[in-house]
Write a structure and sequence with these properties.
Among the domains are: 321-426; 437-548, no CATH class. Helices cover 80% and strands 0% of the residues. Helix 8 (161-177) runs antiparallel to helix 9 (183-195) and helix 17 (365-423) packs antiparallel against helix 19. It is mainly α. The radius of gyration is 35 Å and the shape is elongated.
């Protein structure tokens, strides 16, 4: 029995590990697929181009109709305007000589294209004109499927429970004419189960379909997309994202422009705070929707993309000012050190003058003894301040030159990489590198890490001393690996003399409202008045400071 449990544990661990590795690999694959989107588009154009060539060498209306129908299938999720053209051509062929089956097939396909590009009135008019009872089973299935999709497209930007119910009404009719063994039946049945909140049953059905298919299968993206929706309902976000990525990669590789998985990924990453990914995914989704002319997806993404784009551009602008901010901070610190040095020098000159006066007249020794003692006490204070200033100056200047040297080295490496890409005419990769902010993000994190390390080396008891200013039950507990958290970093900057919220916000890449919220949160966690809190904050780390 013990061996059995050990075996089960090993199997479960292997499955879990394999899934984790697969999730990572798919994340890489999605980025690669986005980078190669033009390659997939060219492959799609090549395939449709071959069909178009066949049209120029055939005279048979039957053959032309069949080729037009293939082009319709290729274009309906790729370029709706082209799909409309070839469907209309088939409608003309069906009338000369008149062929009822072909005409109705072309009309039903035309209605679906109209609903996709936002021509809902034209789509509805065609569907209402056709008597479904007179259709053969094959066309009846397509009629019910496209009528259900009509309400699905319409409800996307016009949410209404009536339209949602109509989707299911026509899906029920579709299930009534489909072969229960067919994939289309199982997909629609899974969607019906999801509508009725029977997610576990739908998941089991879809996983069975997925295990029998590959990325090249037409329905593969639908299986994985629906599984992603189910996993999100189950709050299994990592699994849901894995399936969305699989669906997005399959759509990209198959040249599909009318897809929803990458839209969901954009929204998920935006709310998770990964603006770079959200921007890339939303931009790609909007480009594809506009290219395909699928109006309901264009409307869905355009407003969301404008929000992400605004945030992305603001952050890019902030990143450009990072180096200026660092130089400004070092300049201010150096100026402060210079003022301190001048002040100490003047005090030392005063002491020298006092010593000179003492050497002139020993008879005045008793009279000026008290003054000398007072001057010596001041000198000790100044020496302590000078020692502290020198310690801070030496630490920060050393770190500054080290950082500058590191930045110059990294910039040179980056320049060499860009030069190599330019020389080898890898302009797409060069463009991606220039648009990427990964280097800036990494350096920003390194800056904060260095700041934390240097600050704590200067004020090793800062965290414990700061906690004494807070109510005991509200004291800050750092996570494993943390030196300072955002709240402590704000007050660390104040301890160094940065009292301006604008400068603090600029250095930490926070908005003013975020700085205000952090400060309000901390003030709510202390029983001290604002003035007492700030006074005691400035005393942290000073020799002889004790908790009052």
């Amino acid at each position: 029995m013990k061996k059995f449990f050990i075996l089960i544990s090993v199997c479960l661990f292997s499955i879990f590990n394999a899934r984790c590795q697969e999730s990572v690999s798919k994340a890489i694959t999605l980025e690669k697929a986005l980078a190669q989107k033009n390659v997939y588009t060219a492959r799609k154009d090549k395939k449709t181009g071959e069909y178009r060539k066949q049209l120029t060498i055939t005279r048979s209306s039957e053959t032309v109709y069949a080729i037009n129908n293939k082009l319709y299938q290729e274009y309906r999720k790729y370029k709706i305007d082209s799909a409309l053209y070839f469907t209309r051509q088939n409608l003309l062929i069906a009338k000369k000589p008149y062929d009822s089956y072909k005409e109705k097939q072309a009309l039903i396909e035309l209605s679906n294209l109209y609903s996709s590009n936002g021509s809902f009135l034209e789509s509805r008019a065609i569907l209402e004109k056709i008597n479904s009872h007179e259709l053969p089973n094959e066309l009846k299935a397509k009629y019910y499927e496209f009528y259900s999709q009509f309400f699905e497209h319409y409800a996307t930007n016009n949410p209404n429970t009536h339209y949602r119910r109509q989707i299911e009404v026509y899906r029920d009719s579709l299930l009534g004419v489909l072969d229960p063994k067919s994939n289309k039946y199982k997909i629609n049945f899974a969607q019906k189960l999801m509508y009725n909140k029977k997610y576990a049953e739908a998941q089991k059905l879809l996983i069975g379909l997925l295990n029998k298919s590959t990325k090249r299968d037409y329905d593969y993206a639908m299986y994985t997309y629906l599984l992603g929706d189910i996993k999100m309902v189950f709050k299994e976000e990592q699994e849901g994202i894995k399936y969305y990525r699989l669906a997005a990669v399959a759509d990209l590789e198959n040249g599909i422009k009318d897809h929803g998985a990458i839209q969901n990924l954009a929204i998920y990453n935006y709310y998770r705070g990964d603006i770079d990914k959200a921007y890339r995914y939303a931009k790609s989704a909007l480009e594809d929707a506009v290219f395909c002319n699928v109006k309901f997806r264009t409307l869905m993404m355009s407003e969301f993309y404008s929000i992400i784009n605004t945030v992305y551009q603001e952050r890019e602008e902030e990143n450009k000012n990072k180096l200026h901010l660092l130089i400004f901070a070092i300049t201010m610190l150096s100026a402060g050190l210079l003022v301190t040095a001048v002040y100490v020098y003047r005090q030392m000159k005063k002491i020298s003058k006092i010593k000179e006066e003492l050497s002139i007249s020993s008879e005045q020794l008793k009279i000026v003894n008290s003054d000398i003692q007072e001057a010596n006490n001041k000198l000790n204070e100044y020496n302590i301040e000078l020692h502290e200033a020198n310690r801070i100056k030496q630490t920060y200047i050393a770190q500054f030159f080290d950082m500058c040297s590191s930045y110059i080295g990294k910039l040179d490496e980056y320049r060499i990489k860009l030069n190599k890409k330019a020389l080898s005419k890898q302009f797409d990769e060069l463009s991606l590198m220039l648009r990427s902010s990964n280097l800036v993000d990494e350096e920003l994190q390194d800056l904060y890490q260095r700041f934390d390390e240097i600050f704590i080396s200067l004020y090793p008891d800062f965290v414990s001393d700061f906690n004494t200013l807070l109510i005991p039950e509200e004291r800050i507990i750092l996570k494993d690996g943390e030196i300072l958290n955002p709240e402590l970093r704000i007050y660390a900057l104040e301890r160094l003399g940065f009292s301006d919220s604008v400068k603090i916000a600029s250095f930490l890449r926070y908005s003013l409202s975020t700085i205000y919220n952090y400060r309000t949160k901390v003030r709510n966690r202390t029983s001290l008045s604002k003035e007492e809190f700030e006074f005691r904050l400035q005393k942290i780390g000073m020799s002889g400071n004790s908790e009052s």
